[in-house]
Amino acid sequence: MTQAVQVVPSRWERFKQSDFLYYFKRDKVAMTSFTVFMVILVMSLASPLIAPHNPYDLSTIDIMDAELPPSWMEDGDATFPLGTDEQGRDILSTILYGSRLSLTIGFAAVGLQLFLGTVIGLSAGYFGGRVDSFLMRFADVQLSFSTMMVAIIVSAIFKASFGSEFFSQYAVLMLVVIIGIAEWPQYARTIRASVLAEKKKEYVEAARVMGFKAPRIMFRHILPNCLSPILVISTVQVANAIMSEAALSFLGLGLPVDQPSLGALSVSALSTSSRALGGSRRSQVWF
Question: Does Nuclease show up as a keyword for this record (predicted)?
């Protein structure tokens, strides 16, 4: 008599049969948004191959090409499809390279936020008592300040401690740390609320009876059941991290001039529009 051999499905098979993929394939908005995101991600990663110019190569930048209009406008140049900025860099190339840099900062900063928020939220929700009170009061104090204020304070502390030259050399790493420190309380509070509901369930009690230690129960049993709100927050926080990087670059606390990003593009666009607006006002006064 032969025994039936039970075939354990692989991770890919379990993923294809998961509820996540089932509902994702039936949500047209989610699929369209994911497609647009993947196009932007692929274009940013392939920027060295598809960009007309390299904005990091200062030897190819000519200040005489500064502030050229797009190629389809009068006085435009075909070699600069979207025109140039005030330093003579091709705007299309700067968008492609800057998107890659901004996406890197966004994902890395969200990863740091996720790590800090997960550890602190799990600890506060699982242990409770004084640990919960101390960690959550610390999060409340940080939440009482705006994200940009915390980022500006931390950025100023880094610059004063290590110097402007060190900050410029490790600007990407510094921005990841700054934005990550400024945004972790949202993860911590969300995860804590989920842990408070999960730790009273039977599977947690069974894990305790079996003698599992607290870290294993927290990360192997409770955390997988708290991933849904974490994923929702992460999709929003990536965009917030990119906007924070742009705002810090606009305030002069972000990336240096020789590392173009979406924040540097916003600074260039605002300065150009303000000069144009000022010129139009002066012409109105003159006439």
Answer: no
The strand pairing partners of 84, in sequence order, are: 90
Instruction: Give the pLDDT of residue 197.
Output: 86
Comparing C-alpha atoms, which of 231, 234, 253 is closest to residue 244?
253
CB 74 within 8 A of CB 109: no
Domains and CATH numbers, the chain: 104-271 (1.10.3720.10)
- In this predicted model, which residue has the larger pLDDT, 77 or 5? 77
pTM > 0.70:
yes
Rounded to an integer, what is the distance from CA 7 to the centroid of its chain?
40
